[in-house]
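Re: Re: ligand-bound prediction request (bumping)

Still looking for help on this. To restate: I need the protein modeled with pyridoxal-5'-phosphate bound, output as structure tokens. Inputs repeated here so nobody has to scroll up.
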Amino acid sequence: MTNYNYIPVAKPCIGEEEINAVTEVLKSGMLSLGPNVSEFEEKFAAYIGAKHACSVSSGTAGLHMCVIAADIKQGDEVITSPFSFISSANSILFEKANPVFVDIDEESFNMDPEKIEAAITPKTKAILVVHIFGHPADMDPIMAIAKKHNLTVIEDACESIGATYKGKMLGTFGNPAVFAFYPNKQMTTGEGGIIVTDDPVQQNLFKSLCNQGRSDDGQWLRHTRLGYNYRLDGLSCAVGIEQLKKIEFLLSEKEKIADKYNELLKDVKGISLIKTKEGCTRSWFVYVIQLDKNIDRNKVIEEMNKRKIATKPYLPSIHLQPLYKEMYGYKEGDFPISESISSSTLALPFYIGITDEELKTVCENIKEVIIG
Ligand SMILES: *Cc1c(COP(=O)(O)O)cnc(C)c1O
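Reply:
Sorry for the wait, this slipped through. Here it is.
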């Protein structure tokens, strides 16, 4: 029976608090560069345990500024993961540098530290670490390799707010780290992102870069470097402040839903559930299952869609995107583990407010579609 409405993959969790906060900003007449920008930044930095934060118009904008701050230039190389959302690699291309992919490990879906050193050349400037699906990358060996080869570590923590590696918050390893607030993330500001750093010099640079390269002396129409308009507006900051107040709730609700899925799906033949490695806590971003190789994923998506349930292939490997194939000549087989994960993972509906009934419906239909 399909007597329910369409079940989407993601949905933001917005309450009266966010609506009221936005209304207040609108009434104040100060829609950008108001006091709530620094309020959001200070509160966010405190939550992560970093000294500074610079809010930005998107996670991608934040990553771009991190690449600039690391002095990455044309022809330089940056080591990163092929199993990510495209913008982590694109942020390297923005500065005409080259992403150098390192294949992932099968359990965490993050860069395999054992494969990193073989990818280092005299041109390598940095490691752009992605913590995919809220699972921490293996930071101890990565930081050791970076130290040994004098490389900057940039953390793409856009999917991983609140996750920890050996008891330490993600976002405190790299200098800097980036979080993102698109509506499918754990917390949202609409569009938006934030960079965290402990370095006051870097913080000043970010503040200037995202604000048209304005000089540090605060003169409004004095521009000392090539900058951008990557500012986050006041409406978004107001939403961010309210979302951050409930971050523990947002994260624990997601975890509860993941636990329910794990229980409902644990014995289903044909699928495997993703794991969290020892020593890590995951921040639940998406709920993904892995389909056995003999199952036609497109068919599953199509069948689920007929039953009014959205599912998504998540994520395609970056090196096989048309842009990257064209630029670098990548082909299938270049990063086999990333490709194998890309071809078998499926994201299920996962948002706060999904009812137990809906969860059951999703799982029963998945079983029917897979087992027949
Ligand atoms: C969401 C995300 C980003 C940033 O995306 P924006 O839409 O620009 O905020 C970067 N990297 C990863 C891995 C992401 O999931």
